[in-house]
Amino acid sequence: MTTANTERKAELSKKEFKQIFWRSWTIYGSFNSERMEALGFLYSILPSLQRIWKDNPEKYKEALHRHMQPFNMTLAPSPLVMGLTVAMEEKAHDDPDFDVSSINAIKVALMGPLSGIGDTFFWGIIKVLACSIGASFAAQGSILGPILLLLVFNIPNILTRYYTLKIGYGKGITLLDSLVNSGQMKLFTYIAGIVGVASIGSMVAAWIGITSPLTFTISGTEIALQDYLDQLCPQLLSLTATLIIYRQLKKAKLSIMQLILIIVVVAFVLGVLGIIA
Questions:
Q1: How far apart are alpha carbons 255 and 277 in whole angstroms?
Q2: CA-to-CA distance for 179 and 190, rounded, in angstroms?
């Protein structure tokens, strides 16, 4: 495989490309609430990490830990991020001054936009189209029903995975060289971090939704506590709970299961007492 960059030859062999491509189909096989698709992502790019860091065991361990950070996005375009990640790991190996924190920053920044495109295209269009065609043939008793359903859905899926991996790695090398040489890598990393934090904030507001039903009567006027909390900051209780849990993950010596148990108990007690809803 070659890239548009004439100064540097791509190191990703056809064998390694195929390994990442086929392994990318397992990315959702180990999904969990703590790290989501991280283990599957790491497994997909593992052959490349072994090649890149074979001469430096300590850096190899750091790379393994680096890619165990939470990762979650629509499956079909995920190889684009894998290809770009491999290109960045190669850059980190070749350049001692390369900021490795930018690798996860860019991964996080790409999760939202690519997931939005992937969800719209594959789940909103292709899946509906495939099911409609398959169901229409199946209703007539034709064996083509399930066959067409699988073909219509999976052919675009396969092509997307293949070409996004190729583009992510090939163009990723050129993009990284351009960003580093122009001095824009730090700016891009900073912006990516802002996008990641904004995405997390949006998820906290949209998914957690902790509210308080407490009301007080002052001078004959009933006052709802939640109304005042919303005036201070929308979803303030959700944000506070998230920050407390995050601090416990960082500082306290608690396992994920212990923390989940504590959350369940505290939420149950506060819910029974009518403090939160």
A1: 26
A2: 13
Angle at 77 between CA 155 and CA 120, to 5 degrees: 80
Site of tokens 């949209």: 206
**Alpha carbon distance 97, 201 (integer Å):** 31
Please tell me the distance from the alpha carbon of residue 47 to that of residue 259, in angstroms, as a whole number: 34
Mean pLDDT, residues 182-208 taken together:
70
Of 134, 109, 130, 132, whose CA–CA distance to 121 is shortest? 130
Give residue-wise pLDDT tens across range 46-57. 999 999 999 999
Give me the DSSP letters along 233-273: -TTHHHHHHHHHHHHHHHHS---HHHHHHHHHHHHHHHHHT
pLDDT tens column, 27-40: 988 888 778 999 99
Residue 149: left if φ>0, alpha if ψ -120 to 50, beta else—which one?
Answer: alpha
